[in-house]
Amino acid sequence: xxxxxxxxxxxxxxxxxxxxxxxxxxxxxxxxxxxxxxxxxxxxxxxxxxxxxxxxxxxxxxxxxxxxxxxxxxxxxxxxxxxxxxxxxxxxxxxxxxxxxxxxxxxxxxxxxxxxxxxxxxxxxxxxxxxxxxxxxxxxxxxxxxxxxx
Amino acid sequence: xxxxxxxxxxxxxxxxxxxxxxxxxxxxxxxxxxxxxxxxxxxxxxxxxxxxxxxxxxxxxxxxxxxxxxxxxxxxxxxxxxxxxxxxxxxxxxxxxxxxxxxxxxxxxxxxxxxxxxxxxxxxxxxxxxxxxxxxxxxxxxxxxxxxxxxxxxxxxxxxxxxxxxxxxxxxxxxxxxxxxxxxxxxxxxxxxxxxxxxxxxxxxxxxxxxxxxxxxxxxxxxxxxxxxxxxxxxxxxxxxxxxxxxxxxxxxxxxxxxxxxxxxxxxxxxxxxxxxxxxxxxxxxxxxxxxxxxxxxxxxxx
Lengths: 150, 303
What we know:
The complex is a heterodimer.
Chain A: E1 13-19, H1 24-30, E2 40-48, E3 52-60, H2 66-69, E4 80-85, E5 88-94, E6 100-102, E7 105-106, E8 122-128, E9 131-135, E10 141-143, E11 148-149
Chain B: H1 14-29, E1 40-45, H2 50-62, E2 66-70, H3 84-94, E3 97-102, H4 107-114, E4 119-124, H5 130-144, E5 151-155, H6 162-171, E6 178-182, H7 191-199, E7 203-207, E8 219-222, H8 233-239, E9 258-260, H9 281-299
Parallel strand pairs in B: 1-2, 1-3, 3-4, 5-6, 5-8, 6-7, 8-9
Helix pairs in contact in B: 1-5, 1-9, 2-9, 3-4, 5-6, 5-9
């Protein structure tokens, strides 16, 4: 049987694999891929041995610094990044949860100042699994199931 | 360098706590020291709080400073829709220090980022009120001679009571504290604090009965069970009269024991306690003025 890729290969760029299916569009948002002028292809609900189903994103001619890519740890903690050059994987990286999250997420506390004025949110990551974020301003803790992305 | 502010009790080190205690003692002995001569202090009360505002303003007056500000936001440009950011930017151009109370949590931390002068948080919603904690500590050191080896009984609303949480965090800086928590299950201390105590190897005990266990106390810290915290009014009715301290309960308590309360009190301390020498809450409020003088002098490097 002919074997072919469900999401076509890229010559140069980044492949983000092992994204939970529910997190695909959040990852796109966090990495601001809506505004990306390069070719972006993605697949969702793909078979995965490890995860059952997964999502994958391929971004041509774009490479991400660790601090940028680590932002997706909030929604895709097991994601893997492959850097591609000339169709070859030249580097594999795993996502690491940062100690501090700037922007990205709203504070769940409705009476937090960050929900009243135009302020960039700032959280200390106090737990990675499951995610728990302590607001730098109101000091309340936003849990994984309460996270709303900006 | 950014001006040093006091937003959260954990902003200060143990050395700073002790310095505040020493300064407060000094101000109590000599209350009229004109260290703020020629300085302007802004008291911005976006929500009313008579007690805290008068305490701060007394402290400023005793230090010889001038006061600008407002005591509720309807008399300020906030009612015209001005943002906190703009109000603070403007006022920090006028004043040498900002003391603010605001209903939104985190507002004081944000103000300290925007302001070019020190900010003292006089309460940001249910979050922090660090000058209250420092005056509680001053009351403890004054009556017990030390902040070490204190057996502290915290009674009432331990779930939402910000004064309880802050005092607990501050007392952890001192040697060998023992905590006893007395609260209905609905208002028990949040788990995060218990986990923190356990991880530090600190002894604590939880009780739901308010009985002669208080005989072991050095300090009984009473708090108000607040009706607005309850979703179900029936739940409030069940617990509202459970934790009332009465004079006859104090018979066998320790000689050195003192009763603290952040005030206002509703009915949780019976008025028959007021004349007992162990009742300390009104003196505690007076200590607030000296403690606030100390905080202002410390943040402005006047002492």
